[in-house]
């Protein structure tokens, strides 16, 4: 172990001497958490709205007001015709156009049930779905208001027997995306830093020849590997701490469950990423190759982890692929501990899968990383 | 080191990469306390041989012992008895001189006290006290070379392998480097060195000339000059290499 | 073409074509990414794991449950779990939501205009929570229509989805993926191109020859431009024929825009390469400043309009934002250049600024 200490010391000296590294390791993650924490939102807000009012009556104005009043829509244009609305939609200047037909007020009063059209830009399927739901909500509200106004309400309502859904949102009452995203970003940053930096630093030593020099010393294989990964585990944890503090101080999102458990499981997770990093370094000759390999894995790992896209929405064969992704398990673990305070008992499956994955990759990589050249 | 026999003993050693025979059935012995030179053009198989002897590369066939240890089974023991320096630089350029010495000392398993003693000794010896806390990359090449050699010897090994240690160094630095090698031999160490400089070959006690993975000629510089009836080693080298080609 | 320039271009092509691994990564990886993600990215909730607590146990409540099953979005994983331990269902991730039907459901339904059904949702994923809430409201509406003789609707609003009437995720994400992939790979390729020469010392060699910095830059950009364009074309073809994403507008215009965008991506990489010293840092920097922002701030998945205002400005500085608007508009809406000149102009402007800055950095680099 004596030798490992010297390796660790050397690694830290090199890290601290490279100013750009410190920037990349600590400042960038901070910025990313701040920027992305604000940016990533699947909420649909500020939907730009155009209105074509063929009726120009008090009833039609009430419809426009109803849309204008909600924070979901921004009233942008009063348009001449459906054709003009279509053009604005084409240009992307509005996402929704409301078209109120002629004689709207008259039909309404004579109980002819007029139809208001809502043209919705469906390019973004998700936002379009949410916008459609907003439109329906506003429509429902208008219907009830109108019933009450017309004075028919009490009699009619007494004959109607409706069920009504009363939703209760647990763990994230205000439905804010950032609650979900911050733990995810921390997990992703941890993955990238551990996998990239270990791989890169080994290949760098290969390129400049110091690795060969180390290989002819009496140092043991496992000492060499420990000497490489201990510094990066420490860096990764500092980084995680920076991330947790940033998430807490800026977004007010603190770890709800056990921080000790979170860190312990993060170490277990790092085994997998460090193993992959070492593996990438053994199969590549140059830093460029190592980077490409690590990058390749990172992209797949992130998108197939459930970070943005729930895994249960994917086709079955893709779901099978995700079981090979260690980040998939860690994303669940970090979110559960962060948001729900879930205890270890309920995370055993993930922990076990991640642990096995980590041990296997780490062992295989270490065996491959032999003290001999090819 | 096991006391019996040679410092290095090689028998029918062969290394094949794909269908290319980098080292082809070579045999030789190196006496203790000898400077043994490996002479050859680039790609002749010198580096491959050294790497096999240092336990960096497994041979395809043949036998070899270094310091009495078998290179197949006991390569970890070999590593405690050898120093190695390659043509590529082996120091961390982003660490200071002192940090490099400290690091390699630690890697070779020296205690803290030994490290600090050795560091002081080395800095005095190499006259690097002024630059001790400068980054290694700021040193001139010749100094780096001598520092690299000294750090590779921190554990006081009896056998030293040098793979083209002086490529890219000016003549004065090269001379200083060889003075250092002579001092090591005086201390009773064995030096195994590859080179393609003929004047350096003159410094060796014994030489072997390699071509296409084979040893074409071997002997003391003086003997070789007589054998090939040449005035200098340059001619010896050319004749040995061309003669080898004619034989094939 | 200038002779020095053509020799630089030739040399660069040789570098690229000789490195088989890089070639494979350039051409194979985008295809794999497109196909896998084309299938994987779907934000619409399916197979919602649902637990039901039926405290009423009446024909009415059973009918309500039937309705939930009939809409196909919900998968019932548990009926009548331990009421005191509902939260552990969420913590074990066995359920996305729990429907609680009150014990007086049937009685209230007969006598009151409104009867509440409680819906507990694991809202740690807010998007999923929204979907679940909307779906269950839909179920309630269906139930209400079935169980009332009349529901008066004085007016109705009829939503009509344009450009993508079936709300296919692939229509939205495939063009987006093309934009993301092109930028990432182009920036990465060039950022290492110059730094590699810096590290090898070959840059110095070129700089002492009578070559103008602009020639070096053009010589670097042109070969990668062709490769980037080929790659873009390849994934476009796959997107169209494999995923059936239509190209409603002009194919020629789309390709021209793609060339412009490739140039932007390459200039981005060039700038990074001129200000970094080692390949390692160049790559790290490229990855950090391209991957996450391009995926997250460009509107690729997350709507820009929902971001805070300062970030909306930042997103305008990201080339992918503009190209995403262009490629989606051309492919799905079929609009022409008259609607897209602003975005095209923005891309051109970003490229010019990036190229200008890197040229300035570059010419003063070795002193």
Overview of the molecule:
The complex is a heterotrimer of chains A (374), B (248) and C (367). Chain A has helices at 2-17, 19-39, 58-69, 82-91, 104-109, 125-149, 153-159, 177-208, 210-215, 221-251, 259-283, 287-303, 316-322, 326-340, 348-368, and strands at residues 47-53, 73-79, 96-100, 115-121, 162-170. With 374 residues, chain A is of the alpha/beta class. By secondary structure, chain B is an alpha/beta fold. Chain B has a single domain (8-247), classed as P-loop containing nucleotide triphosphate hydrolases (Rossmann fold), CATH 3.40.50.300. Chain B is built from nine helices and ten strands. In chain B, the strands form two sheets. In chain B, strands 6-7-8-3-9-10 form a six-stranded mixed β-sheet, sandwiched between helices. Chain B has a four-stranded antiparallel β-sheet with strand order 2-1-4-5, covered by helices on one side. In chain B, strand 4 and strand 5 form a beta hairpin. Chain C has 367 residues and is an alpha/beta fold. Chain C has helices at residues 3-18, 20-40, 59-70, 86-91, 105-111, 126-147, 169-200, 202-208, 213-241, 251-275, 279-297, 309-316, 319-333, 337-363, and strands at residues 48-54, 74-79, 97-101, 114-122, 156-162. A four-stranded mixed β-sheet of chain C has the order 2-1-3-4. The longest helix of chain C has 32 residues, at 169-200. Chain C starts with a helix and ends with a helix. Chains A and C meet through helix 2, helix 4, strand 4, helix 6 and helix 7 of A and helix 2, helix 4, strand 4, helix 6 and strand 5 of C.
